[in-house]
Amino acid sequence: MKKSPEKKVENKLSNCKYIFVVGGVISGVGKGVAASSIARILSDRGQVVTAIKIDPYINIDAGTMNPTEHGEVFVLDDGDETDQDMGNYERFLGVDLSRANYMTTGRVYQSVIERERNLEYGGACVQVVPHIPLEVIRRIENARDKANANVVIIEIGGTVGEYENILFLEAARLLKIKNPKSVFFVMVSYLPVPSTAGEMKTKPTQHAVRTLNASGIQPDIIIARSNRPLDDKRKEKLSMFCNVPVDHVISAPDVSSIYDIPINFEKEGLSDLICDTVGMTCGPVSNAGSDKWKKFADKTHTKNNAVNIAIVGKYFNTGDFTLSDSYLSVIEAIKYSAYSLGSKPVLTWISSMDFEKDPKKIKELSKYDGIIVPGGFGSRGIEGILKTIEYARKNNIPYFGLCYGMQLLVIEYARNVLGFKDANTREVNPSSKNMVIDIMEDQKDKVENKKMGGSMRLGAYPAKLKKGTIAQKAYGTDIISERHRHRYEVNTSYVKQLEDKGLVFSGTSPDGHLCEIAELPVSKHPFFLGTQFHPEFKARPLSPHPLFTAFIKACKKGK
Ligand code: GLN
To answer: Does residue 172 carry a pLDDT above 70?
Structure first.
């Protein structure tokens, strides 16, 4: 008898494999990149893979957190404000994910509580266990169905042994009871090499595995992160004390380019190992996808043709460290375009406050081939950024402004070309006479009533492009779709005056009301362009973003 299409899907879904990725010993061990790389190598072998990030905090999303606290807020097409690992998944897998792929403790509890208020538990006592883990499982299955995936990678945030992620481990354990042959665990652990001992130590990982065992979970594969490769002795030790066959211990030493990791995993035979372990039939290792990836990964080692880019903004410093993580997607977008043009990007982080403290310092910007001002909020460092933009405009240094960087471009132009000395954004100076950047109409009551969570203009919106402009030529199309995250916009009552003085609004919303891209024609400046959206969220290793590529081209030309 012929199977109905529904039946086929059902079969496929019931054959779905769930690979949980958990972290051992320390945070920041590279779980996200490991999960992304596993996703990549399995998708290169013909599997339909989707990936889920679980963040164990109470926040409903990452949008309300300070970037110095959390790193980048990565925005999806549907407007979800998520963790930067979601960006890694999208970039490594080359797919667009949705809010179904992201969950937090807050989200899980919120759904359960809403359901309880709607009498959906039929009078039962609603309990942390099983109702919270069951909601986690429901969400995993929902993401699986949405992507029609036969492999779901689920990264559980935090480190094994933390109180916060216990309920997610409990969900994984319950899912395994339901599907004993379909649920697998990869532990990404850390092996220190203390200088006093001079050798790699396995004990912390042994403890992490034991802690995981206490949650009723046994890892199937251990990915051993360290600053050097694992020797056979260490593999045997981990095998013996962590109950995994020796060939299930994968060496994952530090690398200079994260894009080598899928390739290194394959050198260790990881996709074969996963396919064998989970009982999947996989396609050949070397198909077109992985060949393209290898070519790209090779380029990430480019040593010549440096382009020097200054990234000017705030949020760069926390204590003694520069928190470039807050702008991860910007960094990666620059890299993809630079590599595609055979260049090595050299990035310098500059705090705009330096130019406020010492105005003479602005001249140091002449060293750079291009300047980027990324997104941001609030008034700190803004005058320094305006000085930066003025310097770039007057000295023909390519300038690329992202979101706030575009709004500030417009303010700079209004102040210094139109002569509106107090031009500003309502965000910084609500009593300015020339509010060239104003709050969006539908944002007013949200801000007044402090409804700040998930309420900006978020996610993908279309824009139409003006023929013959830098933007239109770069995209090679008239309609684009890009991701947004803002409350303020160019005040349309200033558009005519700005245009009369030479600024071109080369991208607008399809109805023409909202300014999406501002630029100066190439006859006036090699590259002076800002976008109200965040192009960096759509840049991918195998398809660099056209505007970043146009910017890097201009930087190279001006050298
Ligand atoms: N603060 C500005 C706004 O809310 C820009 C936001 C951003 O750069 N993401 O509109």
So the answer is: yes
The architecture (CATH level 2) of 302-558 comes to 3-Layer(aba) Sandwich (3.40)
Q: Which two tokens stand for residue 372?
A: 């980027």
In terms of DSSP H, where are the helices of 381-423?
A: 382-394, 404-416
pLDDT in tens, 492-525: 999 999 999 999 999 999 999 999 999 999 999 9
| Per-residue confidence (pLDDT) for residue 423, from 0 to 100 | 97
pLDDT (tens digit per residue) in 361-406: 999 999 999 999 999 999 999 999 999 999 999 999 999 999 999 9
Confidence of residue 195 (pLDDT cuts 50, 70, 90): confident
User: How many CB atoms are closer than 10 A to CB 231?
Assistant: 12
Two tokens at 135? 């909601």
| Confidence band, pLDDT 50/70/90 cuts, at residue 320 | low
Nearest CA-CA partner of 28 in 169, 168, 190: 190
What Cα–Cα distance (Å) separates residue 99 from each residue in 379, 481, 547? 31, 18, 26
Q: Which atom belonging to ligand 1 lies closest to the Cα atom of 456?
A: 4
Cα–Cα dist 212/158, whole Å: 13
Structure tokens at 365: 């910007």
CATH of domain 5-297: 3.40.50.300
Q: Which of 311, 377, 446, 456 to mutate to test the pocket of ligand 1 (most atoms within 8 A of CB)?
A: 377
Known catalytic residue at 545: no
Report CA(80)–ligand 1 centroid distance (Å): 16
pLDDT tens-digit map of 212-243? 999 999 999 999 999 999 999 999 999 999 99
Where in the chain is CATH 3.40.50.880? 302-558
Distance 193 CA to ligand 1 centre (A): 43
CA of 407 to the centre of ligand 1 (A): 8
- Which is catalytic among the residues 403, 427, 489, 555? 403
Burial 45-83 (b: 16+ CB within 10 A, else e): bebbbbbbbbbbeebbbbbeeebbebbbbbbbbebbbbb
Structural contact between residues 78 and 459, judged by C-beta atoms closer than 8 angstroms: yes
Q: Which residues line ligand 1 (CB under 6 A)?
A: 375-377, 403-404, 407, 427, 485-488
Our mutation pick for probing the ligand 1 site, out of 75, 486, 533, 536, counting the most ligand atoms within 8 A of Cβ, is 486
Every domain range in the chain assigned CATH 3.40.50.300: 5-297
Q: Residue whose CA is closest, atom 5 of ligand 1? A: 404
Nearest CA residue ID for atom 6, ligand 1: 486
Active-site residue flag, 534? yes
Distance 456 CA to ligand 1 centre (A): 9
